[in-house]
User: Fold Molybdopterin oxidoreductase family protein from Inhella crocodyli.
Amino acid sequence: MSDAAPGAFRICPLCEAACGLRIETEGTQVVRIRGAEDDPFSRGYLCPKAIALKDLHEDPDRVRQPLVKRNGRFEPVTWQEALETIEARLLPILREHGPDAVAAVVGNPVVHRIGLLNYFPRLARALGTRNVFSASTLDQMPKQLSSALMFGHWLSVPVPDVDRTDFLLVLGANPVASNGSMWTVPDVKGRLKALRERGGRLVVVDPRRTETAELADQHLALKPGADAFLLMALAATLFEEGLTRPIPHAAGVDAVRDFVAPYPPERVAAACGLDAAVIRQLARDLAAAPRAAVYGRIGTCTQRFGTVNSWLVDVLNALTGHLDREGGALFPKAPAFAANTQGQPGQGKGVKLGRRRSRVSGAPEVYGELPITLLAEEITTPGAGQVRALFTAAANPALSAPGGAKLDAALAQLDFMVSLDIYVNATTRHADVILPSPSALEVAHYDAAFSQLAHRNAARWSEPVFPKAADLPDDWEWLLRLTALVQGQDWRAPVAELDEALLMEALQHSLPAEFVAPVRQALGDAPGPARIVDLALRLGPYGDQFGRREGINLARVKAAPAGLDLGPLQPRLPELLRTPSGQVELAPPELLAEGPALEAALNAQAPAMVVIGRRHLRNNNSWMHNLPTLAKGPDRCTLLLHPDDAARHGLRDGAIAVVTSASGEVRAPVEVSTAMRPGVASLPHGFGHGGEGVQLRVAQRQPGANLNALLPMGDRDPLSGTAVLSGVAVTLAPAVAAT
Ligand SMILES: Nc1nc2c(c(=O)[nH]1)N[C@H]1C(S)=C(S)[C@@H](COP(=O)(O)OP(=O)(O)OC[C@H]3O[C@@H](n4cnc5c(=O)[nH]c(N)nc54)[C@H](O)[C@@H]3O)O[C@H]1N2
Ligand SMILES: Nc1nc2c(c(=O)[nH]1)N[C@H]1C(S)=C(S)[C@@H](COP(=O)(O)OP(=O)(O)OC[C@H]3O[C@@H](n4cnc5c(=O)[nH]c(N)nc54)[C@H](O)[C@@H]3O)O[C@H]1N2
Ligand code: SF4
Ligand SMILES: [Mo]
Assistant:
């Protein structure tokens, strides 16, 4: 045994940095968790959340047995009984009301579980419902859409080449707390510091002086929601001052020039809350930097102009010649599951939008799903196609999506609900059946999602650290049996049999007929996601093509102690493109059509007080508040307020504020902070664990306020369907002490 790396290798399943961990165990206990020094990708980095994997594994509140609700109480049952209940109650709904009567919501942790990621789409297809929702429309859908329109595929998203850049402009992201998003980059804080130490420049645009802004050379405290104006003004300055040097293979430069021309810094400065001269200088700095990247994240996505922002970020990268350049914004080349490595290099069909529409509001489908803020109306509005049953997989929309009490009431109204989850929380308390996922330490993992967005190309696999309880199905087994169930097949059949049928279907769909049998044989007989990963790796850009060339396969990835390093990112244009024109589309018509709405917004009256969200290194959306290691310390669900705003509203540090919006009201303790832009309050999301029936004993001690109870269900970016989570108008008042 090697002394260098004791402990089982595990890819951390908690955030997008996907750090490699070493987990040391004794018997059934975790004794130590460290960063894996031998991981070529994360090089030993880890954050405090990783340590809490021990708490998560041991959490007495974690659901370990299937639960069925009888007379309002959850009772443990066998997996067969759980599925029998689903069969008895779900199938009649499907038969009587059709596929759209069953909705599915997939949540964030799905991307961290290979079993869920690989098998959920099969269940969704089998259900045949148009009512598929996910956290993407609370998050990154605008970036995926702008990338799809510009580069031809939903996952062709460029990421900053942070280790080689001289200038990084960050908008609406706080990677020092979030550890990076749509940008898989372990130890981003260390890398940002290194950027500055080598003489590079970091500029952060954020209404709050965040932990990332604290590290920066320059912080621009933009007004929430004004990113589009800032980005247009930056582009307008580049054109006006002759600073553009567009990348090759780019179409639409003139159209972009015309689009941004009406928005010079002097015209948008007031809307942005920034000096025109500062905006102008920023454009010059960006253009002058030998190697630079612009990066925008959730703060730029969850706005009315989320897709416009996401587009303009890459327009700036392209106009300044920094897109697809070392030290600029580069496209990863993932070893498996990357559509931008398949088919004809350099050209494709592009993407289709709006193939279906939502029943009530008529919102278009985007990337196969509908805006999650429409879930409640689909449940509560009577008529053909009304949602009567819901399946959730690792999703907590009751807290993570706008709506508060209204959404909660909609969930309570369902005829039937099944949750594949690990907790009884604000959402799953409404379920009739809860199917537990095994512990993260009991399942294998391949980093399929984040290798598409990684700062360096790598292929990593982790085996289960502990064996899974024999009578508890793995994520993919649940989904496989559910898929059989809704298709009216024998869901009790051995999983190997069920998986075989799906595998053959996939092979027949993706391979020329003469290869199906030999490839099938090479993949072996063990069912589950591993052989799908093997297939994807072997047919992927570094793959061995089943022996037809020298290359990688799953066995080789597994043989490397902490994964295979596939090298730094490299330029990929025009090979990566899948647009019909074979060009980078700098001026997609869907985005140009936003012109009039932008003009109207520039002239609109801004509210006096708005609320934005925030993340803390020790939190993770709505579901890690039950882990003692992370929950200890002060209440983190506080309302940050600039001292002037606090004084204006008669609120002192520690006082309870009543925060009211057009949609709801919450109470939260005030934390006075000069880091806030005046007129902007900040409350974290994911809290609000106080609901009846919630079984989260640690989280319930500090349940916190649900930010999303303040946010309207009706406001979204119409192009991507993504919710507006930022810059919502509120009023503040001190709570009147109870007498
Ligand atoms: N106001 C506001 N709202 C936001 C955001 C914001 O910034 N502001 N951020 C949004 C973003 S970016 C996201 S991604 C969403 C996240 O929102 P969701 O996608 O709803 O995800 P979480 O809140 O992380 O809840 C995860 C759920 O998965 C369960 N779970 C955890 N681990 C596992 C597992 O291994 N297996 C299974 N089966 N279940 C598991 C948890 O118990 C919980 O029910 O929230 C969004 N909501
Ligand atoms: N510790 C921790 N890490 C996480 C998560 C977590 O909950 N906790 N969640 C994970 C998930 S699901 C995601 S999607 C990522 C998100 O990762 P990030 O995108 O880095 O998310 P945030 O930290 O919320 O940073 C968003 C920033 O946008 C700012 N902002 C708000 N409104 C505006 C605006 O109108 N314009 C601009 N320019 N800025 C604005 C906010 O002040 C905030 O600082 O984090 C992931 N990592
Ligand atoms: S940064 Fe993210 S992936 Fe890395 S250890 Fe922390 S939670 Fe895990
Ligand atoms: Mo997210």
Observations:
- Residues 1-58 form a domain with the N-terminal domain of TfIIb fold (CATH 2.20.25.90).
- The two ends are 67 Å apart (CA to CA).
- Residues 107-109, 113, 135, 138-139, 298, 393-397, 400, 420-423, 425, 427, 437, 440, 613, 621-623, 685-686, 707-708, 711, 725 surround MGD (ligand 1) (CB under 6 Å).
- The longest strand covers residues 665-672.
